[in-house]
Automatic annotation (TrEMBL), chain A:
Ranges for region Disordered: 19-41
Pfam families linked to this entry: zf-RING_2
A biological-process GO annotation: ubiquitin-dependent protein catabolic process
The UniProt record lists the keyword Ion transport: no
CDD domains, per the entry: RING-H2_RNF11
Protein name in the entry: RING-type domain-containing protein
Presence of the UniProt keyword Metal-binding in the record: yes
Span of domain RING-type: 92-132
GO cellular-component term (any): ubiquitin ligase complex
Residues in the signal sequence: none
Organism expressing this protein natively: Dreissena polymorpha
TrEMBL record, chain B:
Domain (UBC core): residue spans on this chain: 4-150
Keyword Transferase set for record: yes
Entry-linked Gene3D superfamilies: Ubiquitin Conjugating Enzyme
GO molecular function, one term: transferase activity
Protein's organism: Dreissena polymorpha (Zebra mussel)
Tree of life domain: Eukaryota
InterPro entries per record: UBC, UBQ-conjugating_AS, UBQ-conjugating_enzyme/RWD
Family: Belongs to the ubiquitin-conjugating enzyme family.
Keywords, comma-separated and alphabetical: ATP-binding, Nucleotide-binding, Transferase, Ubl conjugation pathway
One family name in Pfam for this protein: UQ_con
Annotated catalytic residues: C88 (glycyl thioester intermediate)
Protein name: UBC core domain-containing protein
Length: 147, 152
């Protein structure tokens, strides 16, 4: 039970541009990037709601579905590699560290961007943009409707 | 996760020291860099004016994914602060966002002193008094400020 939650992304078909495929393309030639799961100590805890954390095997079925859906939605949000040319937002509002060239960012529908790792951690707790508090899924739906 | 203090906490602490917020003083504890000794001056024009309020602020392991824990150490008569100093403030609970900081949290608490909200009470008896007889409630808040939050 719950193992399916760890193996996310594998069979998701990206609806939006970006994600793993483009990341790989932008990699300079050299050894293939290592395939990595999230570190196991992190993967064990899930947040069915922002203040509740539980290991995967203690989640109710309903919570598991919610989390699986959330993982799916997150994986459809576009990512990009920071190239240093962005006009604004050079600092990640979550870790407060500057974006470095080559780092993986995630861009939310409201156009706020963060380190992928930082924002994914947050979105597993609350599906809102930390900067504008815009619910990410509402914005996603609008994007789908208008495109 | 274990070990060193996250860069963000170090950065926030440095910025708090370099550009302090007017009327707010937050100093990290010598033993524990996640624990801050805070002093907030009662805002001008509020019943807490001229008072000096001590608070404690703690950054939990999960910070900034979860909100800082903040509590008044100085007794205060306020509808959103209870007897043991717990604060009813949305950004400390369900409205927390990792883009908020120690600075913004303390500014919000300062603003809460200027604008008590008896419709969302934590201290029910105080809120009741605030709604039924605001003048008297404000008077009590002033008295408590003199009694417990005297700067001298």
């Amino acid at each position: 039970m719950g193992n399916c939650l760890k193996a996310h992304n594998n069979d998701d078909i990206s609806l939006l541009r970006g994600n793993e495929s483009s990341d790989v393309l932008e990699q300079p030639s050299g050894p293939p990037p290592p395939y990595h799961h999230e570190p196991s100590q992190r993967a064990q805890l899930y947040y069915p709601s922002p203040n509740v954390s539980r290991p995967a095997n203690q989640l109710t079925e309903e919570e598991q579905i919610k989390i699986a859906k959330r993982l799916g939605l997150i994986s459809h949000l576009p990512t990009g590699i920071y190239d240093g040319t962005s006009k604004k937002g050079k600092e990640c509002a979550i870790c407060m560290c500057d974006f470095n060239v080559g780092e993986n960012l995630r861009i939310l529908p409201c156009m706020h961007s963060y380190h992928k790792e930082c924002i994914d951690d947050w979105m597993m707790r609350s599906f809102t943009c930390p900067s504008c508090m815009e619910p990410v899924d509402a914005a996603l739906l609008t994007t789908y409707e208008t495109s | 996760m274990a070990g060193g203090l996250p860069r963000r906490i170090i950065k926030e602490t440095q910025r708090l020291m370099q550009e302090p917020v007017p009327g707010i003083n937050a100093i990290p504890d010598e033993q524990n860099a996640r624990y801050f000794h805070v002093v907030v001056a009662g805002p001008e024009g509020s019943p807490y004016e001229n008072g000096v309020f001590k608070l404690e602020l703690f950054l939990p392991e999960e910070y900034p994914m979860s909100a800082p824990k903040v509590r008044f150490m100085t007794k205060i008569y306020h509808p959103n602060i209870d007897k043991v100093g717990r604060i009813c403030l949305d950004i400390l609970k369900d409205k927390w966002s990792p883009a908020l900081q120690i600075r913004t949290v303390l500014l919000s608490i300062q603003a809460l002193l200027s604008a008590p909200n008896p419709d969302d009470p934590l201290a029910n008896d105080v809120a009741e008094q605030w709604k039924t007889n605001e003048a008297k409630a404000i008077d009590t808040a002033r008295q408590w400020t003199r009694m417990y939050a005297d700067s001298n």
